[in-house]
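Design request, tokens follow.
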């Protein structure tokens, strides 16, 4: 089949030539500006579409609201409790006088129990109400020497009577800050008595000097050895822990009286 060749008319040729000349005549910087403008417009259209899809009126989940409310309540409760405790403690220490019979800490309870026991003991001894009593020879420090004094106490367990004897010994020896020194625990293992003293006991020994401190410990050992059989030696603890080495006297070792030679 013979091919048909289409010839362009003069009008079509003129129009195509005009369009080509118009495209060629567009400056390069104009095309560059048009391309940049299109790039700048594209993110703007995306942001508008995103914001259009966002719903400000969407309700918050109920569970989330409950958790937020519980968290705020706990936060305010803890802050109020800590703040109130701090304020009360501040006023008790700085501005107010605490009554003598108020018990707030373990130290207050121990002091109250010791004072009450001492009061009951003294009243019973003075009244002579037929309460069983024992006489204890107490060896205390006096004028750089050991002096013997007899004291009567209500007969109780051996540990309680040891506590009474040691407390009276410290008082008779005029140990510094005797009212602050506490005998926390007393227990016995065979012929060894363990005395758990408070930390103020070490400070008192340091202030007394080496000679008086050694006399005081010797008086404690002799008092327990002669009045509470089968005790032969004494070991000291400080705040329920083995004492540190060093200091005026060595508290880490067992203290005992030398054996009598015949």
């Amino acid at each position: 089949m013979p091919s048909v060749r289409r010839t362009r008319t003069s009008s079509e040729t003129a129009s195509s030539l005009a369009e080509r000349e118009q495209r060629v005549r567009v400056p390069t910087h104009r095309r560059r500006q048009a391309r940049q403008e299109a790039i700048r417009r594209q993110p703007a259209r995306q942001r508008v579409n995103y914001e259009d899809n966002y719903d400000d009126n969407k309700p918050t989940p109920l569970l989330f609201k409950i958790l937020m409310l519980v968290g705020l309540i706990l936060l305010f409760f803890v802050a109020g409790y800590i703040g109130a405790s701090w304020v009360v403690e501040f006023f008790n220490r700085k501005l107010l006088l605490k009554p003598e019979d108020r018990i707030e800490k373990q130290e207050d309870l121990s002091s109250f129990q010791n004072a009450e026991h001492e009061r009951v003991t003294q009243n019973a001894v003075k009244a002579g109400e037929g309460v069983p009593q024992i006489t204890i020879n107490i060896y205390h420090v006096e004028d750089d020497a050991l002096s013997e004094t007899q004291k009567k106490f209500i007969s109780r367990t051996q540990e309680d009577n040891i506590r009474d004897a040691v407390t009276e010994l410290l008082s008779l020896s005029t140990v510094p800050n005797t009212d602050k020194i506490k005998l926390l625990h007393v227990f016995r293992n065979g012929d060894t008595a363990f005395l758990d003293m408070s930390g103020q006991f070490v400070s008192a020994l340091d202030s007394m000097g080496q000679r008086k401190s050694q006399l005081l410990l010797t008086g404690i050992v002799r008092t327990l050895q002669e009045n509470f059989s089968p005790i032969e030696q004494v070991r000291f603890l400080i705040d329920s822990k083995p004492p540190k080495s060093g200091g005026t006297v060595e508290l880490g070792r067992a203290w005992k009286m030398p054996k009598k030679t015949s």
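Comment from the thread starter after seeing the answer: thanks! Confidence is low (pLDDT under 50) at residues 47-52.
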